[in-house]
């Protein structure tokens, strides 16, 4: 819009109305106090500035308005002085004092002191002048009103109330002056410096200075001066009695709105009575004369034992009474009694508060829905009245709850706990700590939080409806006022005119003229009521207009005061006007007077709303800070009988503020965080809002930068704590939840069955609402709570993953199971949290934790390899029966493996809680001590193709060095120890003979010392590697099959459907395909995606389909690689002399293996470790693999020494001891190993010759005729191998 | 005759005062409505900005991650 365009009023207004229709979505649930960046409060209170406009009013009350205006200004000034005193912080402590008179810079110090303190001292001087002025003014007013003539006249409620406010002000100022010793200290510092410098030269200044120091030093100076002045006035006690009575009456009929007004009334009663009671006047006598009602005041004092005086200063009003001259405890049975005041117990109020809250909230909700769904220009008079009443009731409820909170807080401040009453309170606890931190029970804290939440919550709701409320309020007030003035007052007017009651008539006319807003601008002069005549038969009808505006504050005051003068019943014995008005009209006027009391509050709705919910004083603690004198005293806190030496331990610590642990807002916030109470969790932001209240108060009422700074500093600290604790808690909670979900259900049932305590699922908590908070308002800042928590939880998640891997690194390879479990739980936890928080991708987090982003291999892969190399291969033995590797139980073959210990972490970083940690560690301990298929599966999952490849590659390198190093060396050595020729002895020798023969032949090998200690271990390690590779591939294949199965539906691979008779398979298949067409990736992407996407999906599909189908095998590759390591000629020996094959010559590896097999087939005695126990099947695997890879399998099977013994023994079935060896036992062992060997051979051949066809291979074999024995003996000297298989 | 006239004048002034105050009230209400609008606009914007910020943060972190993946320690500039 161009700046020059003129916008008409109507356009502007409709523009504003249109704003309402703009949708402004905000999805966060409202769990905080009223958030507002811009506050707009229109203040129409003129403080009687416009009084001269209402010339039609009674002159006396216009004059009175002038007085009121002046008095109000004084009251305001008094408030400023009170703030000045309350927020006074000691300056002199910070000012250096000259240590001696000789100090050279002392003049400078004094000059600076004067310079610094002069403006402060000026404030004190002003304060002294002010109190003088105020006391004078007050006395003047009292004297004027106590004049015998004046006493006969009526004194308005507003006037009395203003006097009451004065009394209250004196009480407050006096107490503040008494309390602030720092004020006196600062002044004396100033005075000393000023006297030294002779700044105060003239006698008048000196006198003033003297007066000021006397004024400051004299306790109760203001109070006493007031009393002194009053006692000079005759009949002052009656006026004060009126003030006290009006306070009692207003208190009892709840004619107040804000808590501070309520408390003011009580203070006025106490201080007023104290002022009245003197030599001349005895309040007990006044009571007897019914001028006072002590019994009623007694009840009030009991119900409200302690009222806030100013900030954190409290006062017990009854104490004033106790200090008065004629105090008689019998007159005050309740207050003197020891029964606890209901003020001290929040719990008794709570049910009522809850009920009121629910009732009111539901009513408000109903009304709010009605307003938002049905649009109305303006409601009917009745509707407006109802709404205005609803608003007033809301304000009153808020005020009541706020009072309950502040009153409890006050009572607690005045009744601090100690270590006798509260066991948790330490003996040396500070004063403030005893008044706050240790002074509330758990229950009370919860109740406080709840009430605060109700206050703040309702405040938000009411503030949202402010425009609706204020609209109705203004219309209602206008209507009520005009109806009353124009219609309601007609009858009394007619009566007064008719009966010639001129005074009454003139007052009524004044009322009408002051406030009536006539339809046609002027009063209806023809109205018969004006002339005291009857209305015509049809009635006298005229229209009373309606407007959306309330009366001005002065107007309302005039109307109310004039009406009050009509109905007042106590005007010093003089005949009252009351008697001349008919009862029914009196009731109407009274009623109007009563209702209109609240109009000022309602007209300034937003201000009233704020005042009713102000809990700022829960933070202020200037009084307690003053008491600490800027330091904390640390006494000896060792528990023992304290003696003189302990005094040396007393230290002073500088203390300018209390720690947050003693601060109410934080105590309450922290209480929720500590207890983790789900029903309170959503309230957690409300106690924090108390800081907003306090900061606002510091800025707008106290107007002190340092107070705001202190609030801000505390908020900074608390909020950090809050976010820290909250995110820790949330992370812990979700971790627990994930771990509980992940925990085996049957395990849980079993645990319950045997009575083992296992925590149920964590108690559902309402963190979601908190996690949705994206703009929390705190001290004018908007905080994205979600973001802060996300940051922290991201870090926690990362830490958690890091810790999982660290734990794995701290243990052996069997811990891989636990690692996977931890990763899964973390994944689940991540998934649960991701619903609310924008966490990093889990996989990238895992890769980061695994150090796998920059480096090709992660920590897990490296540790798996490390463990395989240094622990698994050297220390584990394999057993095919269980398909497990188990740790060798005897001596450790390798050096102890050194592993870094995992860092100590809280439970939240592992399984979430202590019981869960216990449950899981019990479960996973079952997987320790062996390495089986489960471990291989898990390793496959964790390592992935790349990891498996690198682990195997590295293992092959180790094996290579093993084969080409140690094994080759041993082989060379042992080959030389082998007999050159070792024939297969004939059967005729009998099996014992054969055994003895071999025993003799192989004696060197048998005696070889390193065979069992080193050689076999080398073979075992080699064998373990082979088995490891085989099992890994098996596990990998199974994983892949699962993958394929899961991928099948997306690749249009569907299981064959079941067909009943008569059904066609093809039709069914087609139908199924059509049904799941939406799942098929490739056709869908081809149809919907780009060409590039289609290509990618096709390639992916191809890869998935063909991964297993072309028969790639890792193990085959491994075997071939192993084969390439066996390149030394010693393995195969020289070519056979006969050109065909070596038979009896011991030159090939299989001969050596036969010898070794003989060694390990020899049975051991009972106490020795068996070969199986020590080396497992890795040994056999190593031997067999080498034999197969060297192509010596058939020769080995045919010519093996042990096999020969077995064959012979099978024939003669002999059993005897040969050289200490049990033949039968030996043969049993041989048989077992023979079976094992053939199994191993079968497996190896399956992999190695997978491409070859058996029949084909036969064709390529050159067939040799069987050799003929030189003696031409037809008997064969060895058994046919196929026979061997059969036996 | 002058007395009623003076009274009439005052009555007219008072009525004018009612009128003026009603006018002021209309303006006040409108300002209040604008304030309310600004406040809810503020909240709504903060919500949306928070959402946007979140998305940007995710992207930024993803880029960081990817950058780390593709480079070997040095940073892309």
From TrEMBL, chain A:
Q: Is the keyword Hydrolase assigned to this protein?
A: no
Taking every annotated instance into account, which residue ranges of this chain make up the domain CYRIA/CYRIB Rac1 binding? 63-276
Any single Pfam family the record assigns to this protein: FragX_IP
Q: Which UniProt keywords apply?
A: Cytoplasm
Q: Which GO terms describe its biological process?
A: regulation of actin filament polymerization
Q: Which InterPro entries match?
A: CYRIA/CYRIB_Rac1-bd (IPR009828), Cytoplasmic_FMR1-int (IPR008081)
Return the GO cellular component terms, semicolon-separated: cytoplasm
Q: GO molecular function, one example?
A: small GTPase binding
Q: Give the similarity note.
A: Belongs to the CYFIP family.
What is the name listed in the Swiss-Prot or TrEMBL entry for this protein? Cytoplasmic FMR1-interacting protein
From TrEMBL, chain B:
* Recorded GO MF terms: protein-containing complex binding
Alphabetic keyword roster: Coiled coil, Cytoplasm, Cytoskeleton
Q: List membrane-spanning regions.
A: none
- InterPro entries registered for this protein in UniProt: BRICK1 (IPR033378)
Enumerate the subcellular locations listed in this protein's record, separating them with semicolons.
Cytoplasm, Cytoskeleton
**Major location, coarse class?**
cytoplasm
Task: Set out the biological process GO terms recorded for this chain's protein.
Answer: actin filament organization; cell motility; regulation of actin polymerization or depolymerization
State the source organism's domain of life.
Eukaryota
Keyword Coiled coil carried by entry: yes
List the GO cellular component terms: cytoskeleton; SCAR complex
UniProt lists the family membership as follows: Belongs to the BRK1 family.
UniProt name for this protein: Uncharacterized protein
Q: Which organism is it from?
A: Brassicogethes aeneus
Output the lineage of the source organism. Answer: Eukaryota, Metazoa, Ecdysozoa, Arthropoda, Hexapoda
């Amino acid at each position: 819009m161009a700046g020059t365009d003129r916008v008409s009023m109507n356009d502007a207004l409709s523009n504003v109305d249109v704003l309402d229709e703009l949708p402004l979505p905000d999805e966060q649930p409202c769990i905080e106090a009223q958030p507002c960046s811009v506050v707009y409060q229109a203040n129409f209170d003129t403080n009687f500035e416009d009084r001269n406009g209402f010339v039609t009013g009674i002159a006396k009350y216009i004059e009175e308005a002038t007085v009121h205006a002046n008095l109000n200004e004084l009251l305001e000034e008094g408030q400023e002085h009170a703030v000045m005193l309350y927020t006074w912080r000691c300056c002199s402590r910070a000012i250096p004092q000259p240590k001696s008179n000789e100090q050279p810079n002392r003049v400078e110090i004094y000059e600076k002191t004067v310079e610094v303190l002069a403006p402060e001292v000026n404030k004190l001087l002003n304060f002294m002048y002010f109190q003088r002025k105020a006391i004078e003014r007050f006395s003047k007013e009292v004297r004027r009103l106590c004049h015998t003539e004046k006493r006969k006249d009526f004194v308005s409620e507003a006037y009395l109330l203003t006097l009451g406010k004065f009394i209250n002000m004196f009480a407050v100022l006096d107490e503040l002056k008494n309390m602030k010793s720092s004020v006196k200290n600062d002044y004396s510092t100033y005075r000393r410096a000023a006297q030294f410098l002779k700044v105060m030269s003239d006698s008048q200044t000196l006198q003033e200075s003297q007066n000021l120091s006397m004024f400051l030093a004299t306790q109760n100076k203001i109070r006493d001066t007031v009393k002194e002045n009053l006692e000079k006035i005759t009949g002052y006690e009656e006026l004060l009695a009126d003030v006290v009575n009006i306070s009692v009456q207003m208190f009892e009929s709840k004619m107040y709105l804000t808590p501070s007004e309520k408390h003011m009334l009580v203070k006025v009663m106490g201080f007023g009575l104290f002022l009245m009671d003197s030599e001349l006047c005895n309040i007990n006598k006044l009571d007897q004369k019914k001028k006072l009602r002590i019994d009623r005041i007694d009840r009030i004092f009991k119900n409200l034992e302690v009222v806030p005086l100013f900030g954190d200063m409290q006062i017990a009003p009854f104490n004033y009474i106790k200090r008065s001259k004629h105090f008689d405890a019998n007159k005050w049975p309740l207050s003197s009694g020891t029964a606890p005041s209901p003020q001290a117990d929040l719990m008794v109020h709570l049910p009522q508060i809850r009920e009121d809250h629910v009732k009111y909230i539901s009513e408000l909700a109903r009304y709010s829905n009605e307003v938002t769904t049905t649009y109305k220009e303006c409601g009917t008079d009745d509707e407006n009245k109802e709404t205005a009443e609803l608003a007033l009731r809301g304000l009153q409820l808020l005020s009541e709850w706020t009072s309950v909170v502040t009153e409890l807080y006050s009572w607690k401040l005045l009744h601090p706990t100690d270590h006798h009453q509260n066991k948790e309170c330490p003996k040396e606890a500070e004063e403030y700590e005893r008044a706050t931190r240790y002074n509330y029970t758990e229950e009370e804290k919860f109740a406080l939080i709840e009430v605060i939440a109700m206050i703040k919550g309702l405040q938000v709701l009411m503030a949202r409806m402010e425009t609706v409320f204020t609209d109705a309020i203004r219309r209602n007030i206008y209507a009520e006022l005009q109806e009353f003035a124009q219609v309601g007052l007609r009858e009394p007017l007619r009566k007064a005119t008719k009966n010639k009651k001129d005074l009454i008539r003139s007052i009524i006319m004044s009322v009408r003229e002051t406030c009536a807003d006539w339809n046609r601008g002027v009063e209806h002069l023809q109205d018969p009521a004006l002339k005291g005549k009857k209305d015509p038969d049809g009635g006298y009808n005229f229209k009373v207009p309606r407007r959306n505006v309330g009366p001005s504050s002065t107007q309302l005051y005039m109307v109310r005061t004039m009406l009050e003068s009509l109905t007042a019943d106590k005007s010093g014995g003089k005949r009252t006007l009351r008697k001349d008005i008919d009862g029914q009209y009196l009731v109407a006027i009274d009623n109007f007077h009563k209702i209109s009391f609240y109009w000022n509050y309602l007209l300034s709705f937003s201000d009233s709303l704020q005042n009713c919910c102000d809990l700022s004083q829960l933070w202020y603690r200037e009084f307690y800070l003053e008491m600490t004198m800027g330091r904390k005293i640390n006494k000896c806190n060792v528990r023992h009988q304290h003696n003189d030496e302990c005094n040396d331990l007393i230290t002073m610590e500088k203390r300018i503020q209390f720690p947050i642990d003693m601060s109410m807002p934080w105590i309450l916030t922290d209480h929720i965080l500590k207890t983790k109470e789900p029903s309170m969790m959503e309230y957690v932001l409300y106690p924090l809002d108390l800081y907003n209240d306090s900061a606002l108060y510091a800025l707008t009422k106290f107007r002190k930068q340092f107070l705001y700074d202190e609030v801000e500093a505390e908020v900074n600290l608390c909020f950090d704590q809050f976010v820290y604790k909250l995110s820790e808690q949330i992370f812990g909670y979700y971790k627990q939840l994930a771990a509980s979900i992940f925990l085996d259900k049957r395990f849980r049932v079993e645990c319950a069955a045997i009575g083992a305590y296992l925590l149920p699922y964590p108690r559902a908590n309402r963190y979601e609402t908190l996690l949705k908070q994206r703009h929390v308002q705190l001290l004018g800042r908007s905080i994205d709570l979600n973001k802060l928590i996300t940051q922290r939880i991201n870090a926690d998640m990362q830490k958690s993953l890091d810790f999982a891997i660290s734990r794995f690194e701290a243990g052996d390879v069997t811990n891989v199971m636990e690692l996977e479990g931890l990763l899964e739980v973390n994944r689940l936890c991540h998934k649960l949290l991701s619903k609310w928080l924008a966490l990093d991708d889990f996989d990238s987090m895992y890769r980061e934790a695994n150090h796998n982003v920059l480096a090709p291999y992660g920590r897990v892969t490296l540790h798996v390899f490390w463990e395989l190399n240094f622990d698994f291969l050297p220390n584990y033995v394999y057993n095919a029966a269980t398909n497990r590797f188990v740790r060798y139980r005897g001596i450790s073959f390798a050096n102890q493996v050194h592993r870094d210990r995992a860092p100590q972490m809280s439970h939240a970083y592992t399984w979430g809680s202590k019981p869960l940690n216990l449950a899981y560690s019990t479960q996973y301990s079952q997987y320790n001590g062996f390495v089986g298929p489960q471990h291989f599966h898990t390793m496959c999952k964790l390592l992935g193709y790349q990891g498996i490849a690198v682990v195997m590659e590295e293992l092959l390198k180790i094996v290579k060095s093993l084969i080409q190093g140690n094994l080759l060396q041993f082989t060379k050595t042992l080959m030389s120890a082998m007999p050159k020729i070792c024939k297969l002895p004939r059967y005729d020798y009998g099996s014992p003979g054969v055994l003895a023969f071999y025993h003799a032949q192989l004696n060197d090998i048998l005696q070889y010392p390193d065979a069992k200690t080193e050689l076999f271990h080398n073979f075992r390690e080699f064998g373990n590697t082979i088995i490891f590779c085989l099992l890994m591939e098996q596990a990998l294949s199974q994983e892949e099959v699962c993958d394929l199965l899961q991928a099948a539906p997306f690749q249009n691979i569907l299981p064959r459907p079941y067909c009943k008779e008569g059904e066609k398979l093809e039709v069914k298949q087609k139908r199924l395909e059509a049904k799941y067409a939406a799942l098929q990736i490739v056709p869908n992407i081809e149809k919907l995606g780009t060409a590039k996407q289609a290509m990618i999906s096709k390639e992916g599909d191809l890869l998935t389909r063909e991964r297993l189908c072309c028969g790639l095998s890792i193990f085959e590759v491994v075997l071939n690689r192993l084969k390439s390591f066996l390149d030394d000629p010693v393995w195969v020996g020289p070519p056979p002399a006969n050109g065909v094959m070596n038979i009896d010559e011991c030159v090939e590896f299989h001969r050596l293996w036969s010898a070794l097999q003989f060694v390990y087939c020899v049975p051991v005695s009972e106490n020795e470790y068996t070969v199986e126990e020590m080396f497992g099947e890795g040994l056999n695997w190593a031997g067999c693999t080498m034999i197969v890879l060297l192509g010596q399998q058939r020769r080995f099977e045919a010519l093996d020494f042990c096999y020969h013994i077995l064959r012979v023994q099978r024939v003669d079935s002999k059993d005897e001891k040969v050289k200490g060896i049990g033949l039968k036992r030996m043969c049993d062992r041989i048989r077992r190993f023979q079976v094992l060997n053939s199994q191993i051979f079968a497996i190896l051949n399956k992999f190695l010759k997978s491409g070859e066809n058996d029949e084909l291979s036969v064709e390529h074999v050159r067939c040799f005729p069987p050799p003929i024995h030189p003696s031409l003996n037809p008997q064969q000297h060895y058994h046919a191998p196929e026979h061997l298989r059969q036996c | 005759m002058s007395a009623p006239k003076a009274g009439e004048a005052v009555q007219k002034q008072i009525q004018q005062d009612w009128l003026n105050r009603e006018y002021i009230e209309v303006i006040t209400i409108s300002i209040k409505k604008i304030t309310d609008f600004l406040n809810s606009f503020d909240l709504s914007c903060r919500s949306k900005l928070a959402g946007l910020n979140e998305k940007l943060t995710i992207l930024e972190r993803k880029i960081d991650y990817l950058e780390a993946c593709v480079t070997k320690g040095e940073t892309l500039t």
